[in-house]
Amino acid sequence: MTIELQDVSFTYPGSQAGVERVSLRLGAGELVVVIGPSGCGKSTLLGLIAGFLKPAEGRILIDGDDVTDLPPRQRQLGVVFQSYALFPHMAVWENVAYPLKVRGFGKAERKRQAEDVLNRVGLAGLAERSPASLSGGQQQRVALARALAFVPKALLLDEPLSALDAALRAGMRDEIRRLQRLQNLPTLHITHDQEEALSMADRVAVMQQGRIVQVGTPQALYDAPLTREIAEFVGHANLWDGTVSGPDTVRTALGELRTLPHGQPQGAPVQLLVRPERVALGRDANGVNSFACRMLRDRFAGPVRRYDVEVTGGILLGETGEREPFAAVHIPPAHIHLLPQTRTIPESASTRVERGGTP
Predict the structure, then answer these.
(1) Which of 238, 261, 260, 240 lies closest to 251 in space, CA to CA?
(2) Digit-coded pLDDT (tens) for 291-307
(3) Sign of CA dihedral 244, 245, 249, 252
(4) pLDDT by residue (tens digit) across 150-189?
(5) H helices within 51-157, ranges in order?
(6) Is 341 exposed, middle or buried (0-12, 13-18, 19+ CB in 10 A)?
(7) Which of 4, 78, 138, 278 supports an S-S bond with 147, CB 3.0-4.6 Å?
(8) Cα 64–104–69 angle (5° rounding)?
């Protein structure tokens, strides 16, 4: 089973908000997480796939069939909303079985299937309870069970974990991933939580101003963002402007930094990205990219220590598990990623990454 969007565009009446020429393919069993700032078009994208909105241009395919003009019910998609949208006057099993009821299943069969899926999400024995008597995590599982009850072709998740506390979110990420893999469902997950996106996804799609600007594996997206804006949005980052001074060197405000051979022409403007956890404590044995430093901020965060240090030419953000004092840091050349010195993504690059298939 697959989901595919082909050059889909939509604009809300009376505004410029919406999505523009979005192309994206979800393979069987693939979980794609969409992230981006508020108003970038994430929920609009989900609404178009679900059939709640109709595109002005482009096509939406489910398992190769064009469903662009089909109403939501005929698309056979399981949807979980941020609010869960449970019926307070119905028992848990009735909530789960509601999609079966509207499809004409008899009561006995509805209850049997509801109890079966409740068992799969770890809620066996709670079928007769009311939603109000459940914890937030249990209500979230009921909403997920309802989306799975009628054997959907795919799952659409609209920030389903945002109402849960941190401990519950971590557990539910694993539960959603387990069930999604168990049923081999293509799944689109919308979230504002970057940690959630990176920890759950097969691929992550970044949206900005109604467009998908990069799609890749979580590691590729984090280590090799295409633009400064993406680098700043996904995780913390050290970013500097620079000028290529040699085949493996770049001149920056911090001085001349050694990099891996980069293939950039002499004099080319670039930007350098170094993630905080890639900054190493102490001086390099050969003095490469090494700096004496003065501590500005030192923040204890349990398993890690996040710090800001002043070096000649600027400030470095770092992260380490070490707890001892230090007076110098260095940046290994292999941990420097070069970006083009621009804040916009070329159209050709956008098109190329949007059309990626199952990894």
Answers:
(1) 240
(2) 999 999 999 989 999 99
(3) negative
(4) 888 999 998 877 767 776 777 778 888 888 888 899 999 9
(5) 72-75, 92-101, 107-120, 136-148
(6) middle
(7) 78
(8) 30
At residue 258, the 3 state secondary structure works out as strand
Q: What is the domain partition of the chain in residue ranges?
A: 3-228+346-354, 236-340
Higher pLDDT, residue 126 or 121: 126
> Measuring CA to CA, which residue among 170, 103, 110 is closest to residue 140?
170
Strands lying side by side in the sheet with 269-274: 255-258, 249-252, 238-246, 269-274, 337-340
Could you tell me how far CA 113 lies from the centroid of its own chain?
32
The answer to whether residue 210 scores a pLDDT higher than 50 is yes
The size of the chain, in residues, is: 359
Mean pLDDT of the chain: 89
Alpha-carbon span 84 to 117, nearest angstrom: 17
Residue 346 banded pLDDT, cuts 50, 70, 90: very low
Torsion of CA 303, 304, 305, 309, to 10 degrees: 170
pLDDT value of residue 357: 40
Q: Which CATH class is domain 3-228+346-354?
A: alpha beta
In angstroms, the CA 238 to CA 201 distance is 25
Report the C-alpha gap between 187 and 176 in whole angstroms: 10
H-assigned helices in the chain: 42-50, 72-75, 92-101, 107-120, 136-148, 166-182, 194-200, 218-223, 228-233, 347-354
Average pLDDT over residues 19-28: 95
